[in-house]
Design goal:
two-stranded parallel ribbon, mainly alpha, 2 strands
């Protein structure tokens, strides 16, 4: 959707958000940190645009069912050799 992400700073989410440079992370349960992350995005339209574009590109190129299926088939083919 081309929107920036604010996500919990948990390892699986951190890996995706950081890899894609798609948004900001905040500790789970820390309402102040979440508010700060949203305020940071509100105050910086260029960052919102960049994070949103990066996230969309990552979803299209890497994080989608079609790409996961390709990787899985490739893995099975290598194992069958």
């Amino acid at each position: 959707m081309g929107r920036p992400v604010v996500a919990s700073d948990l390892p699986p989410l951190r890996a995706v958000v950081a890899d894609a440079d798609a948004g900001l992370l905040a500790p789970a349960g820390d309402a102040g940190a979440w508010a700060d992350a949203f305020e940071t995005l509100r105050a910086d339209p260029a960052a919102r645009e960049r994070y949103g574009a990066n996230g969309r590109r990552a979803a299209v190129d890497r994080y989608n069912w079609a790409r996961d299926a390709e990787r899985l088939v490739d893995c099975y083919e290598r194992l069958a050799e």
